[in-house]
Write a structure and sequence with these properties.
magnesium ion binding; EC 2.4.2.10; magnesium; transferase; Rossmann fold; 189 residues; glycosyltransferase
Length: 189
């Protein structure tokens, strides 16, 4: 499944150039561009992602999975669906970027309650900032974050930063794996 997802990401979500051509949120230029949404929102990508994330969290004791909207949302939903298919259901949740200012004011939406063990996920980690924000907001709502799982680690310090907040943090796919596929597998670039 992982190799198939790497190929799918290379076809739909990854760009690579020899010279820095892609502007990042930070403003700096990069040789790599990763936008997982075309992959995580397609049927096959959703299937592969959900199963791989579920396998990576299966032994965590978590009852729910989610992260900062919008990057984590399709991954959380796919993981919850895959978990039900495997007979070990975990719920999905979403963490808002801005706090709701009406009704019940909260950061987290979903079927989760304070004290529950959860896994925080994200589609891509560069510096880890959005994942760390999700971890902090989940904890502010009383959730116990037991693991962080990133779909694609850009290998630019993000995982190390995330581990300062959750020691049990892992990535499913690395930038190096995407570059290797991009350069060596016919038909993906």
């Amino acid at each position: 499944m992982k190799k198939e997802l790497i190929r799918l990401l290379c076809r739909k979500s990854f760009k690579y150039t020899e010279t820095p051509s892609f502007k990042l949120v930070s403003g700096r230029m990069s040789r790599f561009y990763v936008n997982c949404k075309p992959t995580t929102l397609c049927a096959r990508g959703m299937f592969l992602t959900g199963h791989l994330i579920f396998e990576a969290m299966r032994d965590s004791g978590a009852t729910a999975v989610g992260g900062l909207t919008f990057g984590a949302d399709p991954i959380a939903m796919a993981t919850a669906f895959a978990s039900e298919l495997k007979g070990q259901p975990v719920n999905a949740f979403s963490i808002r970027k801005t706090q709701k200012d009406h009704g019940i004011v909260k950061w987290v939406e979903g079927d989760v309650a304070p004290g529950e063990k959860v896994v925080v996920i994200d589609d891509v980690a560069t510096t880890g900032g959005s994942t760390i924000k999700a971890i902090e907001r989940a904890r502010a709502e009383g959730l116990t974050v037991v693991r962080a799982i990133i779909l694609v680690d850009r290998q630019e310090g993000g995982m190390e930063n995330i581990r300062k907040h959750v020691t049990d943090a892992t990535a499913i796919i690395t930038r190096d794996e995407l570059v290797d596929c991009w350069k060596n597998e016919p038909g993906v670039a």
